[in-house]
Amino acid sequence: MSQPRAERQRTIVDMLREGSVQSSDEVAARLIEAGFEVTQATVARDLEQIGAIKVKRDGRMAYALPERLGERNWPTDRLQRIFAEWAQAVETSGNLVIVRTPPGSAHLVALALDQAKLPEIVGTIAGDDAIFIAVRSGLPSEPLAERLRDMMAPH
After folding, report:
1. Is 153 helix (H, G, I), strand (E, B) or coil?
2. Whole-angstrom Cα distance, residue 79 to residue 3?
3. What residues make up the domain containing 19?
4. How far, in Å, CA of 57 to CA of 114, rounded?
């Protein structure tokens, strides 16, 4: 992912965490105020890639991050899109798989992993730029790591 896109998407994530953003037009206007050059298509694509969805709050529609919603069953292709955009490296250590992301992005990838309900994953812990994935006892971690590496976009 190019650095400007990563910065722009982190800015959008911050906007969504601060409060309700009601429309992609509002996101675009706030990005322009912040110094980004964006089009409506760029904003729509960014919102899709970070997993933002429209929800009803206080009788009005607004964008929200999936982390602010209850448990949902996201399809594996969504996991692959999110992983391809945000994952930078995958390593193993014992029964752990460690995924590196840009700063401030680990929670998005961890949420997608949790919601994909991959059978070999017990759970995830996300920091700012790293995710620890616990692999079920008795299963090797390398096959999962290899599957995750295959989802990564070429860097």
Report:
1. coil
2. 21
3. 3-68
4. 25
